[in-house]
Amino acid sequence: MLHRAAVEAWTSDKWGQPSVQIAEWLIEGDVVQAFIRLQRGALIIDATVDETGHLRCKNHLHIPFDQWNPGSIQANRTRDSRVRFRHRHAEITLSARFRAPEWGQALLEEWLMAQRGEETRPKSSEQRLATIRRSKASIERYLEQSNLDYAMEMLATTQVSLDNSVRNLAHNRAIAESEE
Questions:
Q1: What is the pLDDT of residues 71-126, one digit of tens each?
Q2: Which of 24, 58, 94, 177 is least buried, going by the fewest C-beta atoms within 10 A?
Q3: Which of 109, 81, 6 is nearest to 50 (CA)?
């Protein structure tokens, strides 16, 4: 129970969201290896829990929902009988005492597939309005933060350059006409 509480607290602190589900890979002494389902993705962690109940993550593999495709998670047993999980260019190696690589791979794929189903499920009008309001607030923040001073300076520089080019062309044309 102490390990689960430590994982939940760490997930909230470090990832800014509560864990939706936790599946233990290995809990032995102070060692915690677990799969964590997030709201939009999944994590695999290799950590320890200290005597105060705080989790110290040694390594983790984050699988963001928007970067996941079915079958993109690989799980293989290594020569030293540990299990390596890979997603894109990231990887993590866990102990293989109690679980087969396919178990973890299937669990992660199942969680992420369920998230894909939740995303395509029709939303209520309140959820759609909340999404629109969040988007509007985000756009307003970006507009407030945007600074057009640099663009105005570039426009002025370009205008000066264009004016100089027009003067040079007029001067060259006048010289060419006078030589004729």
A1: 899 999 888 889 999 999 999 999 977 778 888 999 999 999 988 876 655 567 77
A2: 177
A3: 6
Radius of gyration of the chain (CA): 28
Closest to 44 (Cα-Cα) out of 125, 101, 122: 101
CA 144 to chain centre: 25
Q: What pLDDT score was predicted for residue 141?
A: 66
**DSSP codes, the chain:** -HHHHHHHHHHHHHHSS--SEEEEEEEETTEEEEEEEETTEEEEEEEEE-TTS-EEEEEEEEEEGGG--TT-EEEEE-TTS-EEEEETTEEEEE--SS--HHHHHHHHHHHHHHHHHHHHSPPPHHHHHHHHHHHHHHHHHHHHH---HHHHHHHHHHHHHHHHHHHHHHHHHHHHHHH-
Average pLDDT value over all residues in the chain:
85
Count Cβ atoms within 10 A of the Cβ of residue 69 and give its class: 0-12 exposed, 13-18 middle, 19 or more buried: exposed
